Amino acid sequence: MASATDTVSAGSPAKGSVVTRFAPSPTGYLHIGGARTALFNWLYARHHGGKYLLRIEDTDRARSTDAAIAAIFDGLDWLGLGGDEAPVFQFARSERHAHVAHQMLEAGHAYRCYLTQEELAARREAAQAERRPFRIDSEWRDATAEQWPADLTYVVRMKSPREGETVIADEVQGSITVQNSELDDFIILRSDGTPTYMLAVVVDDHDMGVTHVIRGDDHINNAFRQLVIIRAMQAIEGGWPDPVYAHIPLIHGADGAKLSKRHGALGVDAYRDELGLLPEAVFNYLLKLGWGHGDEEIISRDQAVAWFDIGDVNKGASRFDIKKLLNLNGHYIREADDARLARLVAPSLAKLAPAFTPDSGMDLLTRAMPVLKVRAADLNELAHGAVFLFAQRPLLMVDKAAAILNDDAKEILRQVLTVLDAENGWTTEGLEATVKQMAEGFGIGLGKIAQPLRASLTGQATSPGIFDVLALLGKDESLARIRDQAAKS
């Protein structure tokens, strides 16, 4: 192992040469930080005409679940971040990982270590008592095969360099230097012969042809350990190039604290299913978490691919703001295709309004979208806003709506009934002209008519524009609802 300064540096990648990967552990949902890491890997590969791959790091068999794997794939597909090839499952490659470990063991870059847990614990306690860093200093590091005990279990450790330094020219963090004396002789094979995460990652990245490792900056220390393995395999068989590293800062809450559920940090599926967000809004928001292009706030997928460069990612932690995400989602709601919104809203609406069925109600729901989406920040608000269209008579009134419908309001409704019954065109514009003329004739403000109309037609004190409501409900249904309330004593 070299003792001089070893430097890992980045260069400008050739078109089509870039291979990135996203490698989540399936021990839980796809969280927002993981989704952003996947996005940056996807964008960097797309920007350079390369490949973006997926790897499921399922070596923790006790915590990895099929449900978590399915949730990760589901979340990635929803965001349009599925891999370019079939995913690699790390556990299935254990024999390959172990083979590499034995190559390094035979070549003298790794060693059998027979230190017991009790011996390690005692040495760790001694280091703490003496207030010095604990480093593995195993007497088995330079033992020969003749000295190996025949009846004791062992782990395989890397022979990390003890002299010199390693420098990584990180694409995000800049130059990072570690003294090799700070590197420990980490385990690559456990006592049962199974590979550790540190080994599996390096072997998989090599075999998958990964050129750029883009991941959270909590992995910076791992990079220096993983380079020990890479350099060992370079010496053994060559053809193990150093990857380009880009360690992106983690995401914090709006208050600067570590991101948690109290900040709105949920699984990607919850942003879709519980918060009712659109994937393009989440895509855009994640893109802007730590990266930017001038003053642009609304960035399309094509623009993101054209503009993205990993070197433009901020070095400091980004702050997650759920309010900004919801505001951005409102923009994408307003820009979305009406038929698509109706399809997305339909399942929730069916639970809120039993009279709604996709077979009979989709046309009305689609026609209502231009009116409803102006006021909505998410799909849930769209669904709730559409309930009045499919409410069954007589309508249930919220308290504020019931309060509006006093005796004077009911008298106005009776007179409105007579006027609207004679209305022929039943268009938004025609209805507006008729009601405004009626208000002028009565010498009252338009609101004096619009408020009781809104309450009688929707059962709510707020709604889309009252003339849009009348037009969407149609003449027969509108008059029937008004009549129900006007007839009440």
TrEMBL record:
<dbReference type="GO" id="GO:0006424">
    <property type="term" value="P:glutamyl-tRNA aminoacylation"/>
</dbReference>
<dbReference type="InterPro" id="IPR008925">
    <property type="entry name" value="aa_tRNA-synth_I_cd-bd_sf"/>
</dbReference>
<dbReference type="InterPro" id="IPR045462">
    <property type="entry name" value="aa-tRNA-synth_I_cd-bd"/>
</dbReference>
<dbReference type="Pfam" id="PF19269">
    <property type="entry name" value="Anticodon_2"/>
</dbReference>
<dbReference type="Pfam" id="PF00749">
    <property type="entry name" value="tRNA-synt_1c"/>
</dbReference>
<comment type="function">
    <text>Catalyzes the attachment of glutamate to tRNA(Glu) in a two-step reaction: glutamate is first activated by ATP to form Glu-AMP and then transferred to the acceptor end of tRNA(Glu).</text>
</comment>
<comment type="subunit">
    <text>Monomer.</text>
</comment>
<feature type="domain" description="Aminoacyl-tRNA synthetase class I anticodon-binding">
    <location>
        <begin position="349"/>
        <end position="484"/>
    </location>
</feature>
<dbReference type="InterPro" id="IPR020058">
    <property type="entry name" value="Glu/Gln-tRNA-synth_Ib_cat-dom"/>
</dbReference>
<keyword id="KW-0648">Protein biosynthesis</keyword>
<dbReference type="GO" id="GO:0005829">
    <property type="term" value="C:cytosol"/>
</dbReference>
<feature type="short sequence motif" description="'HIGH' region">
    <location>
        <begin position="24"/>
        <end position="34"/>
    </location>
</feature>
<dbReference type="InterPro" id="IPR000924">
    <property type="entry name" value="Glu/Gln-tRNA-synth"/>
</dbReference>
<keyword id="KW-0030">Aminoacyl-tRNA synthetase</keyword>
<keyword id="KW-0963">Cytoplasm</keyword>
<protein>
    <recommendedName>
        <fullName>Glutamate--tRNA ligase</fullName>
        <ecNumber>6.1.1.17</ecNumber>
    </recommendedName>
</protein>
<dbReference type="InterPro" id="IPR001412">
    <property type="entry name" value="aa-tRNA-synth_I_CS"/>
</dbReference>
<comment type="similarity">
    <text>Belongs to the class-I aminoacyl-tRNA synthetase family. Glutamate--tRNA ligase type 1 subfamily.</text>
</comment>
<keyword id="KW-0067">ATP-binding</keyword>
<dbReference type="GO" id="GO:0004818">
    <property type="term" value="F:glutamate-tRNA ligase activity"/>
</dbReference>
<dbReference type="GO" id="GO:0005524">
    <property type="term" value="F:ATP binding"/>
</dbReference>
<keyword id="KW-0547">Nucleotide-binding</keyword>
<dbReference type="InterPro" id="IPR014729">
    <property type="entry name" value="Rossmann-like_a/b/a_fold"/>
</dbReference>
<dbReference type="InterPro" id="IPR049940">
    <property type="entry name" value="GluQ/Sye"/>
</dbReference>
<feature type="domain" description="Glutamyl/glutaminyl-tRNA synthetase class Ib catalytic">
    <location>
        <begin position="18"/>
        <end position="325"/>
    </location>
</feature>
<dbReference type="InterPro" id="IPR020751">
    <property type="entry name" value="aa-tRNA-synth_I_codon-bd_sub2"/>
</dbReference>
<dbReference type="InterPro" id="IPR033910">
    <property type="entry name" value="GluRS_core"/>
</dbReference>
<dbReference type="GO" id="GO:0000049">
    <property type="term" value="F:tRNA binding"/>
</dbReference>
<dbReference type="GO" id="GO:0008270">
    <property type="term" value="F:zinc ion binding"/>
</dbReference>
<feature type="short sequence motif" description="'KMSKS' region">
    <location>
        <begin position="258"/>
        <end position="262"/>
    </location>
</feature>
<keyword id="KW-0436">Ligase</keyword>
<feature type="binding site">
    <location>
        <position position="261"/>
    </location>
    <ligand>
        <name>ATP</name>
    </ligand>
</feature>
<dbReference type="InterPro" id="IPR004527">
    <property type="entry name" value="Glu-tRNA-ligase_bac/mito"/>
</dbReference>
